[in-house]
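Predict both folds.
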Amino acid sequence: MMSFNEIAGNALLFFLVFGMSATVDIHMLLLQLKNIKAILMGVFLQFAILPVLGFLVVKYGTLDRSAGISLLVVTSSPGGSYSNWWCSIFNADLALSVTMTAISTLLSVVLMPANLLIYSRYAFDHADDADVVDSLDFNSLFIALTVVISAIGLGLFASAKVHSYKFNIYANKLGNYAGISLVAFSALLSNTSGGGDQKIWNHEWQFYVGVMLPCLGGLLLSNVLTSCVSLNKPERVTLSVECCYQNVGIATSVALTMFQGEELATAMAVPLYYGLLEAVILGLYCIGAWKLGWTKAPKNINFFTMIGTSFEVLTTEHGDLIAIEVSLPKNQKDLKEKTKIGSDGDILHLKHSIDECDEDEEMDYDETKCGWKCLTAPILPSPTKPKEPSGLKLPEVPFESEEAPRVVTEQKGLHMYSLWEEREKSPRNRFRL
């Protein structure tokens, strides 16, 4: 029979995964399922790169047997839903993170024991590989698998069925609150169980460097490899988090089963120390990625605005509005209007004179005046029922230069953003309706 702690932990895990999954627009998730390059890279990083790094540290480092086995278990256990929470609060690609969580959770049932069998066999005596795998709590693994997969399925179903950006925002808040509660709950359990004698700060420097190397090496390699295959920047951040954030609870469970006395204290120190490391290192990495413009959040907004705003939802909602690109010609021969509508019917390319609008020219579209020039836009029928708006706007982005002020106008309930540039410097101006 499950204890209260197990029930509470699984309940928080369910709400965390459900909230993150219900945040994602179903069409964005379907697009990520077709993103074979990103998915294969994520699986390679989680089940090949990090386990190999852990093996190399154990094989050629100075860690003792109990710490080495514990580190192998840590580096072979993908982090699952916690990575969704990190990608959510730091505005990486949450749709890709949810997709990777579902795939890695299913694959870990087979690949995690396989990795432990292979690497423990070559890192230690042959008898140790069976001990490690036998110490895995497969019952708990299958319970976690059921919780995660059911939460992902129900969350995506709710997102598609409710069809509301406001619901996506509320679901994101639910997931964030559940994530914070689960972190606090896990920290409380780690301080009240395991005998209280983990001696996390009583080791030689080689222990701390050895446990740190897989996390730092995985973070470096994941950024290099995802850049080499030309993934977009939020996807690179997501896969870096997925690679390095590990499920330290599995290693704790194995340590409690396999070891006693001083060996137990040393083995327990590995997941505790790695858990602290991954939180600090990935936190600093995500802040740096945000400031470099690698996430969906603008790099020059307030930090608390960034972590408190779901740009996953707001940018998707904003992207559903009509996009119009206006080219401002330098030559009189460009006065004649040309149009091009994209395959999705959302993109219209227009060429106008910046000096005047030709009122006598026959137009096929409704003409709309906006601020400093004439702009025409087609009235396009919506192919599907529009989602209920969230009622929120994208946060104001501070100006980085006075030479490029932001022009904001409102036309028929739509928000238009543009950056004005001098005609001699750039003949093109972009509007987002």
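Second protein follows, with its predicted structure tokens after the sequence.
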Amino acid sequence: CRQRFLGRFPASSSSSLRSARRCEHPGSPLVASSMRTRSRRAAVSLLGLIGGAHATSLSHFRTPVFAAAGARRCMQRSFRAAAPAEAAAPPAAGASKGGVAYDLAIEAKWQAHWEAHRTFATRRREGKQKKYVLDMFPYPSGAGLHVGHPEGYTASDIMARYWRMRDYDVLHPMGWDSFGLPAEQHAMNTGTHPEVTTKENIANFKRQLRSLGFSYDWERELATTDVGYVKWTQWIFLKLFEQGLAFQDEKPVNWCAGLGTVLANEEIIDGLSERGGFPVERKPLRQWVLKITALADRLAAELDGLDWPEGTMTMQRSWIGRAEGGGIAFATQG
């Protein structure tokens, strides 16, 4: 996805980057040139910032493309000037060693400005085109963000900012896929209610994401454990049940007694659960089943005409799994 999104934009001259680094105004016309930066390297460069000792600002540069490409240049200068990691301590915040000095206070300044002025709040203007830029919501684990999160989120944030520059009304939300087996296991092991740990983990994830300067509309934040969200998942299930598309049946499943739940094939390694290493057995279990096959023809037909990448279309058709049997005619004697 990163290459597909970022590969659309050609490289720019280094002078554009230098100009962008001097720009502190969020509405400056200089941001219009951001999509011409060296965007193919942008998301990869950003990953070095997350865990590197030489932290460089993201929100100083007005877009993630500026953030990653400009930060990459600053990091290169720092690494050229610094001694080997094992022999030297990280430089102090704002220090300069052979590069441009940077005041880390500018992060808080502009993030506070964005929040106070609702810079990235979704707006709807009559007659304007609109775009919905949706990320895959992360599971808020206790470990916090890993480098794979900002890699993908950088690409989608670039697109969200690009469409805003094109004067589109953009909805770019963030939320949390917050139901998960780890929270259940932690609750059983410690006696802590999963709601408590889930909310703590969400707060940590949100803090980390906000520090990266992504242009999310936090007023549209949601979690799949919110009562208001679960209400609608229940409503969808009831509608499926009313149409005869949800029913109970006995099906073979991967049962893990140690975890007290059914596991997907991907959660099993050499006959043991990936989490905890408990034995898993194949056994029949009465459960709720969704009759997706009843909608296979309609689902497959409605893919036609969608402006989606061919790889995504292929995966959707494979997931729907619509197939027709073959007929064979055998010649007989007599």
